[in-house]
Structure formats: C-alpha cells, structure tokens
Amino acid sequence: MKPAKFPKQIALLAAILLLTFCAGQDEQTRPIVILGGTLLDGTGRAPLRDAAIVIQDGRFQQVGKRSEVSIPQGAEIINAEGKTILPGLIDGHCHYLDWAGELLLAFGVTTCPVVSGEAVEYMVAQREATEKGEIRGPRLWFAGPTIDGPPPSYTSEARQSRSDVVVKTPEEARKAVQEQVAKGADGLKFYEYLTPELTQAAADEAHRLGRPVIGHSLDIFVAAKAGFQSVEHFWAVVYTSAEDANRRTELDIARNSGQTPTGEFHVHLEPDSFDSIIRAMVDNNVHWNPAWASRLRHLSPRAAVLKQQELALLQDPRFSIPSLTAEGIEAAYSSLEKATPQKRAELLEGYAKLEDFVRRFVAAGGKIHAGSDPHQGIPPAFPLHVELQLLVDAGLTPVQAIQAASLNVAEAWQKDADYGSVEKGKVADLLVIRGNLMEDMAATQNVESVFLDGKLVGGSSYVPVPSR
C-alpha cells in the first residue's frame, strides 16, 4: 500500500507554520546588548563606564566593560553611549492602584512590593493577570492585610479600619500569619498596636514560614528584637526617639487625633536618641523606609521644581491620574509658604534633623529604602524619583540612592538572589536613562527604555503593539 500524499496546500501550510515557529524562537532567544553608557548596577559598587550588558532568555548573561564582554553574533545592539544604565526600580513602599500600571512602567518601576493591605486573593489575581500580559504593569510582590493589635480608643474610625486583622493572643497572631502565607502572600505587614508579645509571636511564625516582616512601629527596639526586615515611615523614628513611653503615647494621640498633622510630625524628632536607634537597626539588619517624599517634599530646596514637574504630569497624554488635580498640588506645596515664620523655622529645623538621621543611618551601615507611598492625591512612581533626589540632597551618593530603590528592597523581601541588581545570572530588569546621574539625580525621570524580564516594556523608546 502506497503512503497517502498530502495536498500541496497542506504541505505549504505546514511549512509556513514551521517557519513561523522558528522565527518566534529566534525572537525569544535573540540576545540584546546594551552597549556603552555608565552602569550603576544597584550593588553599591562604583559606576562602570563604557559598560556592555548581554541579555538573553530573560536574564543577564554578561555584565562588564565593553572591552571585556563578548558580543554574541546576531545580537540586537542598543546604543547607550552618553546615558546611564540602572537596574529596574523597586518601589520600596508601593501601593497597588489598578489604573497605575502604565504610569509605573513609564517611570521605570519594574517591581511593586505592595504594602497597602489588599486581600491576598485579589493580589494573586492581579499578579497572575500581569504575568499573563492581560494587564500592563510591573511585577507584584505583596504583603497581605495588615495584622494589628486592638487600636486604642483615641484612634479615629479611619485609622481603626486600617487594622485589617486584629489579634489579641499569640495563637491568633500565629494563625493570622499562617493563613496569609497559605494564600500566597510574599511577606507580612504588621501595624503599630501589636504588643511586644504579639509582635514576637507573629514575627517568629513569619520567619519560620520563610516570609519577611515589613511593619509600622511605635518602638523600633521591639521591631529590631523581633527581626523585622524593614520598618516603614519616618514617624517610626520620631516615636522611638522619645525615650519616655508616656511621651510616645502623647505623640501618638497628637498624630491620630489630628493635633499634629503627619506632615509636621518630624518636628518632634529627638536627636539624642539617634545613635541608639541606629545601632539597634544596624545590628539586627533592620532596613528603614522613610517614605518622606509624599508628605515632606514641599520642605525640600527643590520644591518649586518638583511642583512644576508634578503639574506637568496632569498634562501628559500618556496618563490619566484620577486623584491628581492642580488644586491638590498647589495645596500640598503652599503649606510652607503660608506658615508663620516661627512655624516655617520649626518645620525646616525638623526636616534638617530627619536628613541628619538619614546620613547617620547609612554611614553606620544601615540599609535605606526609597518608596513612593502614594496617597491623598500623590500619584504612584513620581514620589519614588523625588525620594532619590531627597536622599542625594541629604548627603547620600547617587550610587547609594539607586541601591535604595533596587537591591536594598529586594534583600528585605528576600528576593535578592534574582532581583535588585544588574549582575550575571539575575533576572534582566533594566533601565536606560538619558543623562548623567552622577551630575544630576533628577535625570532618573528621563526614562528611555524599561526592560522587564529581558523584554522592552516601557520608556520613551517603547512602542505599544496595537490591540487586535
């Protein structure tokens, strides 16, 4: 019996499918080379000039000076001469807003570690949709709903509602951690009113299950003893700097009752306590995320320029930011202008104290995070870039500032084996920036190319594929 013959049309279709498959394979595996430019790799090492970076199969295959890197045949070459190359930014205090994915990518944020207390099931669904390409946005890591002790009676109803899971016993604390980890949380977020006993029980359980603890704190010494990976917000230092427990309670009542707005809370910093706080944090490898740009950027010497940049976001045709208005921006920046001379001096003196703590913390070996903490009309992503500028203004180097928005955050989330720096073998998240960050930290906003998992996903060089 003779073998059956396929019609010519079927043979032709088979050939086309084979060629299409092979072309797809070539596209997926074709190396990309970022050539020239100055690399700040996120590790804290000195800038590498005239760098060459080879990306293939979603990871960095080679990283080094151009003269030391072998350029693969047939690679796509991206010329970065005169530009700065950075790891993809990791927003150290990211909140998930379902409309903000495009904005985050445009500003070079490739990973959003969510610490705003969303339900784990919701975040798992968002992460899966993003990974499948159904939603455009950065990679998502997330802590689940906040775990807290019973809030004091003096706290507002709005503050009490933010205590998503209230526990009263060590057993309840451990169970709350177990439930969130079982659902898929990458980490745990603790709030201020967990007692030391509950804090320790919950943290021990999180660490037993291999999850980091990110938390607010009224007492950083308790957080350090429990092994927090990161303490959030500048006001945690304010509380802790008050050595008297009664004074801390007074401060908490003042902030939560509105007597002292959060944007003025830094005036209560007590520098005599700085050294002991820093020592406890460094000795226990507790990172710190001041998240100060969203509330204190108007106190920066750059305030006038920052205000214009923020107003420009309203006019950017790429974005539609629901919570951002010109009136809100004007109000945020005008508070210092409207302050009495005495209040103005008090606010600026407190800001100088905060900058002093930043310098001393990092000089002692502390690991700082930059994060946007969007709220009350402040958009995501932009405040992260402001924080990088504030850190440099406070005395950090550009290299240290970039580390605060990359490797430091990945370490706190226990993801640094794969993320946070431009190093051989790591996942290829990378930015190409127009400008020289060693001369002007504000250039981080000039994002030309954003690579996520080795694929171009954002920046001015990104051209979206039309939907069909």
What does the model show?
- There is one protein chain.
- By secondary structure, the chain is α/β, with parallel strands linked by helices.
- The chain has two domains: 26-88 and 424-458, Urease, subunit C, domain 1; 89-419, TIM Barrel (Alpha-Beta Barrel).
- It has helices spanning 8-29, 101-106, 120-131, 157-161, 170-183, 196-208, 220-226, 235-241, 245-257, 274-283, 293-296, 303-315, 326-338, 341-363, 382-393, 398-404, 407-412, and strands at 32-35, 38-39, 51-56, 59-65, 76-79, 83-87, 89-90, 109-114, 139-142, 147-148, 165-166, 188-190, 213-215, 230-232, 287-289, 430-434, 447-452, 455-458.
- A hairpin with a 2-residue loop joins β3 (51-56) and β4.
- The longest helix is centred in the C-terminal third of the chain and has 23 residues, at 341-363.
- The model is unreliable at 1-6 and 9-27 (pLDDT under 50).
Give the helices and strands, then pairings.
Blueprint: H1 8-29, E1 32-35, E2 38-39, E3 51-56, E4 59-65, E5 76-79, E6 83-87, E7 89-90, H2 101-106, E8 109-114, H3 120-131, E9 139-142, E10 147-148, H4 157-161, E11 165-166, H5 170-183, E12 188-190, H6 196-208, E13 213-215, H7 220-226, E14 230-232, H8 235-241, H9 245-257, H10 274-283, E15 287-289, H11 293-296, H12 303-315, H13 326-338, H14 341-363, H15 382-393, H16 398-404, H17 407-412, E16 430-434, E17 447-452, E18 455-458
Parallel strand pairs: 1-5, 2-6, 7-8, 8-9, 10-11, 12-13, 13-14, 14-15
Antiparallel strand pairs: 1-3, 3-4, 6-16, 16-17, 17-18
Helix pairs in contact: 5-6, 6-7, 12-13, 15-16
